[in-house]
Write a sequence for this structure.
């Protein structure tokens, strides 16, 4: 293909004043100007963009957004208006991650309610498991890819506080920065994607289904056009903003007594590898009575992977749950998992990873 150069085009009402503003105030270079005797068009370049301003144009003014490592050097964050009318928004190069305060609520999401599946990134189908997202503090998605094969994904990363991928059904091939060769994530296994770790989804089985948890609910996904995966460095002890990559394998885990009487769990070791940012357990029926209990976790999410149970909540009508259903219980609310079938299996995600549980009786 022959050379192509893109320009952002906009009008100006004062080209002479704009020349001084863009070159002296914002650090652009002026590349062209014409006609010489009465300038009407000026072309500037800088900061990764080429800007063409035309004093005879009747187009609407344009808006440039400049992302800066040092915004104060160009007037500070906020909106500026050039003499000729162009708007300039000055923003931080890397906007800080904001974790909204959790708006606690009791949430039950049933597969039988037929919540819509929405086509999202790379053709994946998404089902929202926490519709109110607890005030924007978390997103929980049931994701499926109906047709197996190569996944049209690119190397990318997420600006998140915590992110979990749990393979519910089928398998998927993944590759991660500094973690060696691609590997297959089988049903029952999971990974955490620490903040800004580069990764890529490569290949999926037919009817693959995963549960994805992201904190906060709205977070940025950035494509990395430079990195190729797998990369040459292998450093499985590397920390990404205080979190280590975890690939939990069910066949290597041990079942132990769970925090709730009548259940056992296998710990994914995610809490210890995230410095207790989050904890993830797979839970199944054990021995003992099923008691009422409460917790003081900020976010407590559970997905029913297999079997059936009744979720009882203090002051609430009971909910009969089965595979594909999900629920959130707020702190200090007494609940009980009653009528648990022998094949019941739950995925529990809590933030933080360590929290208190106490037994009580509804009043």
């Amino acid at each position: 293909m022959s050379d192509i150069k893109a320009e952002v085009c906009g009008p100006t009402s004062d080209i002479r004043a704009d020349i001084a503003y863009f070159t002296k105030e914002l650090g652009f270079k002026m590349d062209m100007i014409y006609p010489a005797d009465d300038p009407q068009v000026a072309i500037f370049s800088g900061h990764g963009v080429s800007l063409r301003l035309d004093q005879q144009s009747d187009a609407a003014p344009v808006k440039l957004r400049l992302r800066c490592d040092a915004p104060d050097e160009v007037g500070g964050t906020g909106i500026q208006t050039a003499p000729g009318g162009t708007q300039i928004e000055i923003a931080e190069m890397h906007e800080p991650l904001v974790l909204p305060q959790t708006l606690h609520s009791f949430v039950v999401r049933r597969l039988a309610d037929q919540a819509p599946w929405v086509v999202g990134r790379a053709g994946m189908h998404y089902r929202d498991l926490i519709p109110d997202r607890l005030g924007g503090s978390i997103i929980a998605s049931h994701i499926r890819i109906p047709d197996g094969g190569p996944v049209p994904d690119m190397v990318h990363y997420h600006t998140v506080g915590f992110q979990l991928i749990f393979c519910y059904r089928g398998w998927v091939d993944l590759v991660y920065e500094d973690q060696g060769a691609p590997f297959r994530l089988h049903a029952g296994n999971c990974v955490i994607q620490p903040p800004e770790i580069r990764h890529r989804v490569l290949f999926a089985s037919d009817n693959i289904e995963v549960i994805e948890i992201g904190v906060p609910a709205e977070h940025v996904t950035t494509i990395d056009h430079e990195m190729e995966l797998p990369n040459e460095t292998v450093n499985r002890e590397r920390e990404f903003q205080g979190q280590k990559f975890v690939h939990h394998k069910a066949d290597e885990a041990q079942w132990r007594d769970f925090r709730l009487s009548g259940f056992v769990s296998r710990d994914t070791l995610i809490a210890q590898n995230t410095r207790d940012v989050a904890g993830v357990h797979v839970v199944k029926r054990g021995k003992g009575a099923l008691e009422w209990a409460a917790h003081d976790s900020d976010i407590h999410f559970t997905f029913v992977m297999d079997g059936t149970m009744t979720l009882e909540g203090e002051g609430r009508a009971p909910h009969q749950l089965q595979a594909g259903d999900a629920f959130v219980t707020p702190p200090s609310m007494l609940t009980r998992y009653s009528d648990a079938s022998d094949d019941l299996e739950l995925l529990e995600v809590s933030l933080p990873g360590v929290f208190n549980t106490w037994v009580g009786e509804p009043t």
User: Anything to note?
Assistant: The chain has a mean pLDDT of 94. The longest strand covers residues 162-169.
